[in-house]
UniProtKB/TrEMBL annotation:
The keyword Cell membrane does not apply. This is Tachykinin-like peptides receptor 99D. One of its GO terms (molecular function) is G protein-coupled receptor activity. It comes from Leptotrombidium deliense. It is a multi-pass membrane protein. Belongs to the G-protein coupled receptor 1 family. The chain crosses the membrane at residues 20-47, 59-79, 99-117, 138-158, 189-210.
């Protein structure tokens, strides 16, 4: 009787209420649909409009492309695995979906780093030539290539394996698990991703925007600021600059 009760508890843990299934399905569908439609529109606008083809918008379009991959390939497939508590898709999708997720995350973060570097150069060294469109395109290609190479261990690690179902005797369920790499190798790879996706980018972006904020705050306005009105205007401008920089840094910390 005790064993039966324990089994019932395990079954309850694996059962998801129908209402929750409906709500989660609706929520994930809306998130995925919004990501696909919204980012597709951004890419289309940048592609079709000549006025939108500038350096900053190329970076924004690259962010949209990476988010589009997440919405199209990562969110729906990862959701079905969590909801059904088993892997029902073809085996090749098991390593494909996590790989796309890692690539997209890498592209987004490295794009933010390069964008911060570009803004840093423009503010700290205003007399230097601006980054050309050709150079930006080369940088974006490098970002995608490096991001893809960095995701190769994920492709190797994830495989479909059959695991005993604790809720039903003599039944095995397919799961997408990390079985292609040794646990120590995977741990080292995970630490590397944390360093490259979080620690180094956060430190660099924080430094870049703090340095830009200090530079803009200390920079004198052109013209005569000896009058009281001009002095007040300069103070308000510096406060506004400090607020914008602080707000942007907080947003970056939240994103990371």
């Amino acid at each position: 009787m005790l064993n039966k009760s324990e089994t019932d508890v395990i079954i309850d843990l694996y059962q998801i209420p129908p209402v929750l299934i409906l709500l989660l399905t609706l929520f994930y569908f809306l998130v995925s649909f919004t990501a696909i439609v919204g980012n597709s529109m951004i890419l289309w606008i940048v592609y079709r409009s000549k006025r939108m083809k500038c350096v900053t918008n190329y970076f924004i379009a690259n962010l949209a492309a990476s988010d589009l991959l997440i919405g199209a390939f990562s969110i729906p497939f990862q959701f079905q695995a969590a909801l059904l508590q088993k892997w029902v898709l073809p085996d090749f999708m098991c390593p494909f979906c996590p790989t796309i997720q890692v690539i997209s995350l890498n592209v987004s973060i490295f794009t933010l780093v390069v964008l911060s570097w570009d803004r840093y150069q423009a503010v700290i060294y205003p007399l230097k030539p601006k980054t050309s469109k050709k150079r930006v395109k080369c940088l974006l290609v490098i970002i995608w290539v490096f991001s893809t190479l960095l995701a190769i261990p994920t492709t190797i690690a994830f495989r479909v394996e059959f695991v005993d179902d604790e809720s039903e005797a003599a039944i095995q369920k397919p799961f997408c698990n990390i079985i292609g790499l040794d646990s120590e190798l995977w741990r080292s790879y995970s630490y590397t991703l944390v360093a490259l996706q979080y620690c180094f980018p956060l430190l660099f972006i924080s430094y870049a925007y703090l340095r830009m904020g200090i530079t803009l705050f200390a920079r004198d306005l052109p013209g005569d600021e000896s009058g009281l009105g001009n002095a007040d205007h300069a103070i308000r401008r510096k406060r506004k600059t400090s607020f914008i920089i602080a707000k942007f840094c907080n947003i970056l910390h939240i994103i990371f």
